[in-house]
Amino acid sequence: MNNNHQLPDQKYATPAEFYPVYLSEHQNTVNRTLHFIGIGLMGLSFVTAMLFHLFIFFALMLVFGSVFAWMGHLFFEKNKPSTFKYPILTLACDFIFFGDLMMGRQSFKVK
C-alpha cells in the first residue's frame, strides 16, 4: 500500500482475494464502527421492505450502505472507498466484514 491510500492496480477474481486489500483500507476504529452500523441498517431495511412491503426501504438500503461508510472513509480513515474501483467485490467484502465483526473474527479496534 502506498502513502496516498490508492488501491493497487490489480484484478481480483474473488472476494477472498480482495478481502486483505479491503481490510487494509479499514484500519480506523470509528470507520469500522460506522461500516458495521451502516451494513446492519441495510439488513434491517431489507427485512422491513420485505415484511411490510414498504419499498422505500429498498432505497434506504443504498443510503445506509453508503452514507455511513463514506463518512467513515472521508472523516476518519481519510482514504477513498474501494467502492469506486471494485463495487461488487467491496459490497461482498462489506458483508463478510460485518459477519467477521459479529462473530469476533475481526475487532472494531485495530491494534
The overall number of domains is 1
Question: How far is it from the N-terminal to the C-terminal residue, by CA?
Answer: 18 Å
Please state the overall shape, judged from the principal axes of the Cα atoms: globular
Uncertain stretches of 5 or more adjacent residues:
1-5
Can you walk me through this structure?
The protein is 66% helix and 0% strand. The chain is mostly helical and 111 residues long. Helix 2 (29-52) runs antiparallel to helix 3 and helix 2 crosses helix 4 (87-103). It is globular.
Give a brief description:
The protein is an all-alpha fold and about 110 residues long. It is built from four helices and no strands.
